[in-house]
């Protein structure tokens, strides 16, 4: 009886006519018309969006096109973040948006456990020719990079019969539970969520700063040190017979945009081949043209940004080090939620039906968008543009590093293609005085604290969206892959002005 009374009392209020919309119901206003200004929307978001999400810039985005984002207050920003490496073809690319819109009128949700749907299969057809190795021929699509990493970890454990996973110091793979366990770029992603997934072991990545060496340390030395530690790990902490996979980003993302030396990747492949360990290559951020090739694993790149492949043990055509499992997302569908896990059929045939799946996995609209992305990348010769714009960006940043007025503040300029970073000096090294990089640092200049954050904030004030990354003082450049020369020049100019203003102001204060 009580249930009937409650339901009866609710019906009139839930079925109010349109003329009454906007009146209060149990203390809440049904109308959204009161949110009429940017300030009101901003305040509404700050009140109702979880505090667990951080933002780098105030305001409410309204629309975007190409390399620009427009806010509700009319402000127009040059976007050097691309939604953290997602809108590789720029915002709202017409071919991609058109393909998605057309697919919306045919099939929006074709659940992968019911039947195949055409965009899913068409996407595989387009991906097969651009895989970094011909052995990668079995696909599973999901929604996000984290989910794809989860699937890769499950696949490695299930198909090898082993539990342990080796990840890289400084690596980032996501915020879901398994992905979070193999993420070691900073503690902020896992703080308060322990205990994490067991069976995870960490090995050094060949990054000079994490190894306590100078930026000029030869890559051969970095590789030797890192591989030596990996072999020790396999003898001291996780036996090869217990180790299912090694997971690596070929270019560290949240760890500071650090490309892995080719010889290190070859060394990993040799270790995996020797012990029957699977090599998981996470190309969520570095893949789909970001580094000047379809996949960062495909080759090496010089400081000036010229891409060049090289033959090596475990390589396929073009010099790619062969992954056993390749993970992709972000630029795959240019903003539509889609990720992918690719392996060899001989590996995936060991999986039981039903062990993979998901309600929205491989959404038809997202798959149609991804097909259009591949077409546009090829038709518009986007990879060639990446190489040209990369030369411009890296040359400009190296010029700043060579400027006597700025040199004391810049430790390193690094990256591949349009995945580029600048690492600044810091007056407060991690671990106090224990960091040998800072012990040996004699700039002769007062270094501002939090320099990366200061510069990024100043860039945002001047109309350029720019992100920081890693536990060190690093800013990262992630512009659209089809960015024009003028837009690149403008972005670099804003960065230079911001950097000079920040350090000049600090010096002017007599710090």
From TrEMBL:
Return the InterPro entries for the record: Aminotrans_3 (IPR005814), Class-III_PLP-dep_AT (IPR050103), PyrdxlP-dep_Trfase (IPR015424), PyrdxlP-dep_Trfase_major (IPR015421), PyrdxlP-dep_Trfase_small (IPR015422)
Cofactor annotation: pyridoxal 5'-phosphate
Q: Which GO terms describe its molecular function?
A: identical protein binding; pyridoxal phosphate binding; transaminase activity
The keyword Transmembrane helix appears for this protein: no
* Protein keywords: Aminotransferase, Pyridoxal phosphate, Transferase
A Pfam family this chain is assigned to: Aminotran_3
Domain of life according to the entry: Eukaryota
Concerning its family, UniProt says: Belongs to the class-III pyridoxal-phosphate-dependent aminotransferase family.
Q: Under what name is this protein listed? A: Acetylornithine aminotransferase
Q: Which organism is it from?
A: Dendrothele bispora (strain CBS 962.96)
């Amino acid at each position: 009886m009580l249930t009937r009374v409650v339901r009866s009392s609710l019906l009139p209020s839930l079925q109010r006519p349109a003329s009454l919309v906007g009146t209060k119901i149990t203390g809440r206003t049904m109308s959204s018309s009161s949110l009429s200004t940017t300030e009101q929307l901003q305040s509404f978001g700050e009140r109702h969006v979880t505090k667990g999400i951080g933002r780098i810039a105030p305001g409410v985005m309204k629309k975007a096109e190409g390399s620009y984002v427009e806010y509700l207050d009319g402000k127009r920003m040059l976007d050097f973040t691309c939604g953290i490496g997602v809108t590789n073809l720029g915002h709202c690319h017409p071919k991609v948006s058109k393909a998605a819109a057309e697919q919306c009128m045919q099939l929006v949700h074709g659940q992968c456990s019911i039947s195949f749907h055409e965009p899913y299969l068409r996407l595989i057809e387009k991906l097969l020719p651009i895989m970094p190795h011909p052995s990668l021929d079995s696909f599973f699509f999901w929604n996000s990079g984290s989910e794809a990493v989860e699937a890769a970890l499950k696949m490695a454990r299930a198909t090898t019969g082993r539990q342990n996973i080796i990840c890289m110091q400084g690596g980032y793979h996501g915020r879901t539970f398994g992905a979070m366990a193999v993420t070691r770029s900073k503690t902020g992603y896992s703080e308060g969520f322990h205990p994490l997934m067991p069976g995870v072991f960490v090995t050094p990545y060949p990054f000079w700063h994490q190894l306590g060496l100078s930026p000029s340390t030869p890559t051969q030395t970095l590789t030797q040190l890192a591989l030596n530690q990996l072999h020790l790990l396999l003898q001291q902490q996780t036996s090869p017979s217990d180790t299912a996979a090694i997971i690596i980003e070929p270019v560290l993302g949240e760890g500071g945009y650090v490309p892995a030396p080719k010889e290190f990747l070859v060394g990993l492949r040799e270790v995996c081949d020797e012990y029957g360990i699977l090599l998981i290559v996470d190309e969520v951020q570095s893949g789909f043209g970001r580094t000047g090739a379809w996949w960062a694993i495909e080759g090496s790149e010089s400081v000036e940004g010229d891409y060049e492949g090289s033959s090596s043990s475990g390589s396929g055509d073009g010099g790619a080090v062969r992954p056993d499992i390749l993970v992709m997302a972000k630029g795959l569908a240019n903003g539509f939620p889609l990720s992918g896990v690719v392996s060899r059929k001989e590996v995936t045939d060991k999986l039981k039906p039903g062990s993979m799946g998901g309600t929205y996995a491989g959404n038809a609209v997202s798959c149609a968008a991804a097909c259009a992305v591949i077409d546009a990348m090829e038709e518009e010769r986007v990879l060639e543009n990446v190489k040209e714009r990369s030369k411009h960006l890296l040359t400009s940043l190296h010029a700043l590093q060579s400027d006597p007025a700025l040199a004391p503040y810049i430790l390193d300029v690094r990256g591949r293609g349009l995945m580029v970073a600048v690492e600044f000096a810091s007056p407060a090294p991690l671990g106090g005085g224990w960091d040998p990089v800072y012990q040996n640092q004699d700039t002769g200049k007062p270094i501002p604290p939090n320099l990366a954050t200061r510069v990024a904030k100043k860039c945002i004030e001047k109309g350029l969206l720019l992100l920081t990354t890693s536990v060190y003082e690093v800013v990262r450049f992630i512009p659209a892959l089809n960015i024009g020369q003028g837009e690149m020049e403008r972005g670099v100019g804003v960065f230079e002005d911001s950097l000079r203003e920040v350090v000049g102001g600090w010096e002017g204060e007599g710090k």
